[in-house]
Amino acid sequence: MIYFFYEFFFKINLDKNSLKKLIFNVVKYEGYKIGNINIIFCNDNYLLNINLKFLKKNNYTDVIAFEIIKKKNIYGDIYISLERILYNSKKFQENFFHELKRVIIHAILHFIGYKDKYKKEKKIMYNKENLLLNLFS
After folding, report:
1. pTM over 0.90
2. Which CATH number goes with the domain that contains 10?
């Protein structure tokens, strides 16, 4: 199951069914199944505190994911700063919902083992994000 939570009020109507469908399609395409995934929409400060507490990083980010994989079943929490998504969509001149889908796919790819610490890993992950966005958007 996929659940959505809000840690603050944001004036955008999100099509949760479309987001669920995207997640199911990406997970299935990668050969996994969904256990329980929680998507927690928050603001920059909320996510900054998580970044400091758990990752020891003092910078804003758009998404942080914590996962558990059990026999190809994905369980996890995806924290998404809608403020950062809005900021990045303007910065990169991209549609807000396209950017939101990108970070959700990014989190799912982390769940299944993709990394983005090094330049080569980032390129692989970015290409995979684009493939999945094109397939399922």
Report:
1. yes
2. 3.40.390.30
